[in-house]
Design goal:
The chain is an alpha/beta fold. Helices cover 43% and strands 22% of the residues. The protein has a domain of 85 residues: Rossmann fold, CATH 3.40.50. It has a 4-stranded parallel β-sheet, with helices on both faces. Strands 5-6 form a two-stranded antiparallel ribbon. Helix 1 links the parallel strand 1 and strand 2. Helix 1 crosses helix 5 and helix 2 packs parallel to helix 3. The longest helix has 20 residues. The chain starts with 20 loop residues before the first strand and ends with a helix.
Length: 155
């Protein structure tokens, strides 16, 4: 079952050929975040963003997405930022702290810069749930993050 944004249809009539979008990708849980990245990049390309205007930057983990997003969003030539990460719950409250901090941080970057900064972070209870949302039975949230960026750019 795909999510509400995963229809595959064109959602924007704006010309995205000169739009520059940064994708910040967490290296932690790489098999998940790579799947998110590939879906996001493919979706951007299919909607007219050129390959050279998709700028990928890696950060060590999901916690670092906020600062990576801020660095990219502060650049004049960047129109939107998509943050891609995956936090899987463990046995300690670490999950709660990371998820809350990242959600807040990404929101703050968008509010401070006035640019779309998209939360493409999976927060799952186990690895299977992450796979299900990174190309599995629930679609790919990387695609949804890219579609959200496109919609916000046309706002």
């Amino acid at each position: 079952m795909a999510g509400p944004l995963s229809s595959g249809k064109v959602i924007s009539r704006i010309d995205l050929s000169s739009t520059r979008i940064a994708l910040i990708v967490a290296e932690w849980n790489e098999e998940i975040t790579e799947a998110l990245y590939h879906a996001a990049a493919s979706t951007l390309l299919s909607h007219g963003v050129t390959k050279e205007n998709i700028i990928r930057k890696n950060v060590p983990g999901t916690f670092e997405l906020s600062l990576g997003a801020q660095w990219m969003a502060q650049r004049d030539e960047i129109d939107a930022v998509i943050c891609l990460g995956c936090v899987i719950q463990g046995e300690t409250p670490h999950f709660d702290y990371i998820c809350q901090a990242v959600a807040y941080g990404i929101t703050e970057v968008g509010l401070k810069t006035g640019k779309p900064v998209i939360f493409g972070v999976l927060t799952t209870l186990n690895k299977q749930q992450a796979f299900d949302r990174a190309g599995g039975k629930y679609g790919n949230k990387g695609e949804e993050a890219a579609l959200t960026a496109i919609k916000m750019l046309g706002f």
